[in-house]
UniProtKB/TrEMBL annotation, chain A:
Keyword DNA-binding: no
Transmembrane segments: 20-45, 65-86, 107-130, 150-173, 185-206
Main location: membrane
Example GO molecular function: metal ion binding
Protein name as it appears in the record: Succinate dehydrogenase subunit C
Cell location: Membrane
InterPro entries to which the protein is assigned, alphabetical: Fum_red_B_TM (IPR004224), SQR/QFR_C/D (IPR034804), SuccDH_FuR_B_TM-su (IPR000701)
Organism: Desulfofundulus australicus DSM 11792
Lineage: Bacteria, Bacillati, Bacillota, Clostridia, Eubacteriales
UniProtKB/TrEMBL annotation, chain B:
Organism: Desulfofundulus australicus DSM 11792
Enzyme Commission number(s) from the entry: 1.3.5.1
Annotated protein name in UniProt: Fumarate reductase iron-sulfur subunit
Matching Pfam families: Fer2_3 (PF13085), Fer4_8 (PF13183)
Record domain 4Fe-4S ferredoxin-type: where: 141-171
Length: 212, 249
């Protein structure tokens, strides 16, 4: 960067602020994802409970505040966390070669973090569109969606929880709040529990009559 | 102990003869008890190929000049025993640094640039009085400084870092650890804001993605995660405390 450009565009705090926005948006999204899983798992308590919860969120406008807010947070996260993804062919080649050669678990985890991130962008986009066009959320419509697109939901579940679990792990590593091996084990356990809950929930929806 | 016949596949390229493209050359060598890569490479150079280029000085993991990629991982050749490796050993020069030839790279230029950029010296306004008694430092602080100071500047953390591999201006663990060392030092009078000027950007603390290949590949076992996190936290606190500067235009 030449001197004029540097002088004119310089904001010494920009990189730090972007990094903090990445942290905050990531934490919000992990919080959302885990809550979302618990809400969807309400189906395990029965169709009535699931429908009542959905109606409750609707009635108090929580859905109408929550959904746009989370979409906005997700958009911000795509921009600020996405800046870490190497976007040049040459850089991508270097990273892949480097990861293969180094054989280092954490480096590979991050490579898949960028891949799952991009997969979630597409899959979650489709998911939100499907849910919003089939509004309101009821057990019977959800079951219909899952029965028609089971593989789609299995991939979204795995990609989402992987990205959330390891994303949070990475933040703990970067800020050094807790020993990285301890927090790694804790987050892996949480992720396995959430994925298991997700799998059971999908199974419960598969057993429901569906929209037919 | 049954001696193995080791096969070394070594990267060959000399920037002075660019017409000869880079290639991998194989050497066979009988393993000896307690053999390090330092011993193996010297044997190859003495007995098989005097043109092979690689760096060594101390043989004891102090000088940091013999770092190379051993089967893809950054290691010190003098500290790596062949018995810990499979019988086929691939040796490549460290990436990121300027290649001198074959396995020899110039880490000096990179580290000098880093030292200048981080202003790696004690900043003080106090005048030195040669007749005064030397001031004492408490042991705890001295040990903390020493922990960061143990870095031998071999470049393994830089070679292992994905970010440093694609971003030339990134200071990496060696650079940020260096800053941590001066932050801990009570003799350095730099304010958090002044440190922020040095590492409060993506070239410094906020460029780290947290892959920890630096920590996992450091031959000296430096606690690099905690050093990086310490500087990141300090810099975030300094950045949040600072008022945005008024722009000139």
């Amino acid at each position: 960067m030449n001197t004029q450009e540097k002088l004119l565009t310089r904001n010494p705090r920009a990189d730090m602020l972007v990094d903090l926005v990445e942290l905050a948006s990531g934490i919000l999204l992990v919080g959302f994802l885990w809550t979302h899983m618990l809400f969807v798992a309400a189906i395990l308590l029965g169709v009535t409970t699931f429908d009542r919860l959905s109606a409750f969120l609707d009635e108090y406008y929580l859905s109408y505040i929550g959904i746009p807010f989370i979409l906005l947070v997700a958009l911000v996260h795509i921009v600020v966390a996405g800046r870490r993804i190497p976007n040049k062919w040459k850089e991508q080649r270097i990273i892949l070669r480097h990861s293969k050669m180094l054989g280092h678990t954490d480096t590979w985890i991050w490579v898949f973090q960028t891949i799952t991130g991009m997969a979630i962008l597409v899959l979650a986009g489709i998911h939100v569109w499907m849910v919003l066009t089939g509004w309101p959320i009821r057990a019977v419509t959800s079951a219909g969606r899952i029965q028609s697109f089971l593989w789609f939901y299995i991939i979204l579940l795995l990609a989402g929880e992987y990205h959330a679990g390891f994303g949070l792990y990475r933040q703990f590593v970067k800020w050094g709040w807790i020993n990285r091996h301890t927090i790694g084990a804790v987050l892996k356990t949480i992720t396995v529990i959430i994925v298991a809950l997700g799998a059971v929930t999908l199974w419960a929806f598969m057993r429901l009559g569906g929209a037919q | 102990m049954a001696e193995r016949l080791l096969t070394f596949s070594i990267f060959r390229y000399n920037p002075n003869t660019p017409e000869i493209k880079p290639y991998m050359q194989e050497y066979k060598l009988e393993e000896m008890p307690g053999m390090t890569l330092f011993v193996a490479l010297n044997k190859i150079r003495e007995e098989q190929d005097p043109s092979l280029m690689f760096d060594f000085v101390c043989r004891a993991a102090i000088c940091g000049s013999c770092a190379m990629l051993v089967n893809g991982k950054p290691r010190l050749a003098c500290k790596t025993l062949t018995k810990d490796l499979p019988s086929r050993i691939t040796l490549l020069p460290l990436p990121v640094f300027k290649l001198i030839g074959d396995l020899s790279v110039d880490t000096g230029t990179w580290f000098r640039h880093m030292s200048l950029k981080t202003e790696a010296w004690i900043h003080t306004t106090r005048e030195f009085d040669p007749r005064a008694r030397e001031e004492r430092m408490d042991n705890e602080t001295a040990l903390k400084i020493y922990e960061a100071e143990r870095c031998i500047e071999c470049g393994c953390c830089i070679a292992g870092c994905a970010t440093a591999n694609i971003r030339e201006d990134f200071l990496g663990a060696a650079g940020i650890n260096r800053v941590a060392r001066f932050m801990l030092d009570p003799r350095d009078e730099r304010s958090p804001q002044e440190y922020f000027e040095v590492v409060g950007t993506e070239e410094g603390a906020f460029g780290c993605v947290g892959l920890m290949a630096c920590e996992d590949n450091c031959p000296m076992g430096l606690p690099l995660q905690m050093q990086l996190a310490y500087v990141r936290r300090k810099m975030a606190a300094a950045g949040l405390a600072a008022r945005p500067q008024t722009r000139a235009c």
